[in-house]
Design goal:
Layout: H1 4-15, H2 19-81, H3 87-100, E1 104-110, E2 116-120, H4 137-149, E3 153-154, E4 158-159, E5 165-175, E6 178-188, H5 189-197, E7 204-210, E8 213-218, E9 228-229, E10 237-243, H6 254-339, H7 344-375, E11 384-387, H8 388-405, E12 409-413, E13 421-424, H9 426-442, E14 448-456, E15 459-466, H10 473-476, H11 488-494, H12 500-510, E16 514-520, E17 524-532, E18 534-535, E19 554-558, H13 562-574, E20 578-582, H14 585-594, E21 599-602, H15 611-621, E22 627-631, H16 636-645, E23 649-652, H17 657-668
Helix pairs in contact: 1-6, 2-6, 6-7, 7-12, 8-9, 9-12, 14-15
Bound molecules: adenosine-5'-diphosphate.
Length: 669
């Protein structure tokens, strides 16, 4: 399994791969928009400031122009005071000024009674000759100011008698220390300002204001400033300018803001995508790394396990070899001694040794077979009605001798009212209990071994308890594993294959129960087998098999091993059968063709032709003759092969005469 951190980070990164770059992209676009707006506002106000300063400059220049115009008039005023003017010289002077200065509409002399007497040019100004300027308030006010204060004064905007809007500038005159009328200069507003603003006409429009009232306007849009006073004309006259084109407010750089902003947004988003992508890659690497670390750990564990298993198997083999050699040694030794033995008593004893050693050997081989059957899932459970108290008693009967030999007190407790019959595989139950009691006796040097049997409802509990050497906590964890013993010294001291508990545990599970242990070193162990069983009733009594009910029927035995031939012949003769013996399959077929047999016993493995092939050939000719496999091959696979070849039954070696007799009865009666 993955250590989740990198994995969950990876999932998150995959999900957000495009989110962050997208957010950054949109944010950058917003920023661009904000910069554009701000820059535009800023540029607008900068331009207005510029406009105001230009307005001021232009107005000051206008002041200068007006001052220049009026200085000419002032010069005429001085000459008037010197009393050097005649009508003719005044006209000439005034005309010269009029021609030199474009801005005058007219120049006139006004007498002390405010009447216009002389005027230049006369043409176009005829209406003004002899006009009493006091006829109108604005004119009169300005005249009185100029006369009383002795300074130049300007009228408010007026409608000129020559037509158009304009204003008059009065210069008071003195002769011989006395007030002697005015020089009046007439200006038309449109003429004055058009003349003056001509130089700016490409850039600016303008407006002339007097006391908030627009006097003259060359503006086609609202203005942006308040205008600047034309001081020479008095504070109320103001000039206001305005740019001709709206482009004035558009910065030449502004057009670049969006493209640059867009490019930067793309760049930032791209960089972020790149970062996200490289982060994703590094997380993927981290994940792969975690996988590798995980796999390495698993491999180390598997390696350790396989080393442990291989160690356990090697020690199992060495142990097994020892376990097999011990009874073999007994058999061979006793057989050797029996060869040259004359005493009947001694030969019985040797016979007894051979018998018990052979059983011990068979037990070991059965254990190995059981183990391999369980491992391959081929061990089948046959539940049948079993008398459990009887079974427990028979185990007691078998084990009491062992207990007595070791001077161990063996006690089995089963309640009086314990229900007798239960549905269970008695062979396997017996096997488990024999193993548990056998171990308890084996690993208890002195003291007591007890077995309690209890039933609560459908549950039966078998508790085997001893006061023996016990098992450490650490080893309790492995003793149910195959080939494991609690301690290597156990092998040397007590013998054993290390298969018993592993088989018992697996059998318990196959019976639908559990096998557990409680133990303390040097105090003893308690093994508990719990099974859930169905109660049953007594089975029908099995018919006693009569071992001598045959009447000399002729049968064929196909068997290559000389010892087995002799043993089988003896047993079969004892059962009252006549036996021909063939040493391999092809000889068997030959005999079959020459005689008329009632039945054939067929070994599986034989030289020249094996039992399976021989059976197939015979079956091809004869459907009826019973053929029974008699073999040391005991797996269910062998059973299946025999059936496929056409055999009717399957008996295993070593021969059990009772089983053999009952099987033969099935086919010969
Ligand atoms: P075997 O007895 O053939 O060695 P088992 O699988 O039956 O194999 O037992 C495995 C190991 O468990 C034994 O070798 C022994 O060390 C330990 N063991 C089993 N039963 C007992 C017991 N009653 N008391 C102490 N140790 C036991």
């Amino acid at each position: 399994m993955l250590a989740g951190s990198a994995h969950s980070k990876l999932m998150l990164s995959k999900k957000s791969l495009y989110i962050y770059p997208f957010i950054l992209f949109v944010s950058c676009l917003f920023l661009t928009f904000y910069i554009d707006r701000t820059y535009e506002k800023k540029y607008h106000s900068t331009q207005i400031d510029y406009l105001s300063s230009r307005e001021k400059e232009i107005t000051l220049e206008l002041d200068f122009v007006m001052r220049r115009e009026l200085s000419a008039v002032e010069r005429m005023g001085k000459r008037w005071g010197n009393n050097t003017y005649t009508k003719v010289t005044w006209d000439l002077d005034a005309l010269a000024y009029y021609n030199d200065h474009d801005n005058f509409q007219a120049i006139s002399w006004v007498d002390r009674t405010f009447h216009v007497r002389w005027i230049v040019p006369l043409e176009g100004n005829e209406k003004a000759v002899n006009l009493n300027l006091a006829f109108e308030e604005n004119r009169r006010k300005a005249l009185i100011v100029a006369r009383d204060k002795g300074t130049i004064s300007v009228t408010a905007p007026i409608t000129l008698v020559q037509g158009g809007k304009g204003f008059l500038v009065y210069l008071p005159l003195e002769k011989n220390g006395e007030f002697d009328g005015f020089i009046s200069s007439v200006f038309r507003v449109d003429k004055l300002f058009s003349n003056f603003m001509a130089q700016y006409s490409e850039q600016f429009n303008y407006e002339v204001i007097y006391d908030s009232e627009t006097i003259y306007k060359k503006l086609d849009r609202d203005s942006y400033t308040d205008g600047f006073p034309v001081s020479i004309l008095g504070e109320k006259w103001r000039l206001r300018i305005s740019p001709k084109s709206e482009d004035f407010f558009v910065s030449p750089f502004q057009v670049f803001i969006y493209p640059i902003g867009f490019c930067i947004s793309l760049f930032v988003a791209g960089m972020s995508l790149l970062l996200q992508y490289s982060r994703l890659k590094s997380l993927q690497l981290e994940e792969v790394n975690e996988h590798l670390v995980e796999n390495n750990r698993a491999l180390d564990l598997a390696k350790q396990k396989s080393e442990d298993a291989s160690k356990a198997k090697s020690s199992f083999l060495a142990n097994m070899s020892h376990e097999i050699r011990t009874p073999l040694n007994g058999i061979l030794g006793a057989a050797d001694l029996a060869k040259n033995c004359d005493s009947l008593e001694d030969s019985r004893e040797y016979n007894e040794i051979i018998h018990s050693s052979s059983h011990a050997l068979l037990d070991i081989i059965n254990d190995i077979l059981d183990f391999s059957k369980i491992e391959s899932g081929k061990l089948s459970i046959e539940n049948k009605s079993t008398n459990i108290p009887e079974l427990v008693k028979s185990i007691y009967g078998l084990m009491i001798h062992v207990a007595e030999e070791k001077s161990i007190y063996l006690q089995f407790n089963i309640p009086e009212d314990f229900p007798q019959y239960w549905l269970v595989d008695s062979t396997r139950l017996r096997q488990i209990l024999l193993n548990l009691v056998g171990n308890a006796l084996k690993f208890t040097p002195e003291g007591k071994v007890t077995m309690e049997v209890d039933a609560v409802g459908d549950y039966i509990k078998f508790t085997v308890k001893d006061t023996g050497i016990g098992i450490s906590q650490e080893r309790q964890a492995v003793i149910f594993d195959e080939f494991e013993q609690a301690d290597t010294s156990t092998t040397r001291k007590f013998g054993g294959t290390g298969l018993g508990l592993s088989i018992s545990k697996k059998l318990s599970e196959l019976l639908g129960g559990t096998l557990s242990i409680e133990s303390e070193l040097e105090k003893g162990s308690t093994f508990t087998l719990s099974l859930r069983l169905e109660k049953s009733v007594a089975p029908k009594a099995e018919e006693e098999v009569d071992l001598k009910t045959f009447n000399g029927e002729q049968i064929l035995l196909c068997e290559d091993n000389r010892t087995n031939q002799r043993i089988a012949q003896k047993v079969l003769n004892k059962l009252g059968l006549k036996v021909d013996i063939a040493s391999d399959g092809s000889e068997g077929i030959k005999f079959y063709h020459e005689h008329n047999y009632s039945l054939i016993l067929m070994d599986m493995q034989m030289p020249v032709m094996d039992g399976l092939e021989a059976t197939k050939i015979i079956r091809a000719e004869d459907d009826d003759i019973p053929i029974i496999a008699l073999t040391a091959n005991v797996t269910t696979e062998d059973n299946r092969l025999c059936e496929e070849a056409g055999m009717n039954a399957f008996l295993t070696k070593p021969l059990n005469s009772k089983l053999l007799s009952s099987e033969l009865h099935k086919w010969l009666d």
